[in-house]
Structures are given as structure tokens and as C-alpha cells.
Amino acid sequence: SQTIHQWPATLVQPVGSPLSLECTVEGTSNPNLYWYRQAAGRGLQLLFYSVGIGQISSEVPQNLSASRPQDRQFILSSKKLLLSDSGFYLCAWTTGGLWTGELFFGEGSRLTVL
Amino acid sequence: KQEVTQIPAALSVPEGENLVLNCSFTDSAIYNLQWFRQDPGKGLTSLLLIQSSQREQTSGRLNASLDKSSGRSTLYIAASQPGDSATYLCAVSGSRLTFGEGTQLTVNP
Fold it and tell me: Is residue B94 a contact partner of residue B31, using CB atoms and an 8 Å limit?
């Protein structure tokens, strides 16, 4: 069966520090991968998506970036965190159509920037 | 642009009650609609996926219905239990995937 892992689960970082959140999917190949952010009391915001290795699409201009170095690995990064980067980051995958396949989420990574 | 609305934002019911959660969307040209559950501090768990050609989909005590022409989906939860307490989100699939902001459900013992 397919599983998705995200780490770290929680992270407290000072403003200006770098960030790396990692997501790995198991049990499937060539998934579409997504990074979402969920701010407190707000809905889900799509940050990045990827249809294949090295293929990254950005939805929101910001100081975050994403990379997909392997088929089932998706990384969210920042060189210098801002206070506004605090939130709950969710990785998701589908093997169906990019916007039409059944979507499955990881457990999330809670980032607090101080 | 698709807009998805979930009303009410929060709902509190006594245990054992049958309840309905609503999801409305503005563009009826959808491919499917997915219902998720989110427990506090956790990721989203897929509950039901209903295709545009389907009228309803069932899983245990959950039943999702879809009326494309009226731009509505409902999630029916039978005989609610305290363990059903969570936030329920719908996501509408079309040219993009659009999420509602969720309904926070509390089932009181």
C-alpha cells in the first residue's frame, strides 16, 4: 500500500534561518506531488506542485522553493525564514490527473518562526 | 474561478445525532469532489471521492451526495460519535483543485 512520510513533524526556527522540509512517498511511482500550507484558522494554500523529477510549478511568489530530486521525494526549502512562514505544511500526492486524481496527504510539519 | 463554501464553519451536536455537512461550489463543470477529515494537528484523511457522474458514495456511516446542477454536495454522518469530532473539508476538482475552508464538528458525549 502507498504511504507518505513527512519530516520533521515540528520545527521551531528563528527568523532568517534556513528551512528544509522533506516528503517521501512509498508504494507508488511517478506521483504528482504537492506542498500546501495551512495557516491558523485558514484554508489550504497550494504552494508548489510537481509532475516529475526536476519539474516544479510555483503557485505563490514567496521566499520558499521546492525541489524534486527523486521520483518520490519532494523538498520544501527556504534560505531565510520570515515570521509569515509560520504554519502547518502538508505534502500530498496523487497518481491520477494533476487536478482530478484522488489526493492523499501526509501528517504535516508544523513550523513556528520566532 | 471556482469558489467552494462550507457552511456552517462550526457545528456542535449531541452524540447519536444524524447530521449533514454542506459543500457548495460555483462552477458546475467539475470532475469529482472529495471529502476529507482533519484531526487537530494532523494531516487530511480522504473519506470519500465522488465522481461527477455519480450521485452518491457511501463508506460505513458516511454518505456523500453530489448535485452538480445545483452546485452542492452533502456529507451525511449517521449516528454520530465523539470520535467523529474533527474538521471536515471538501475539495472540488475541475480545471484546478479548490478546497473549502471546512466545517469544524464537535460531537458531545
Answer: yes
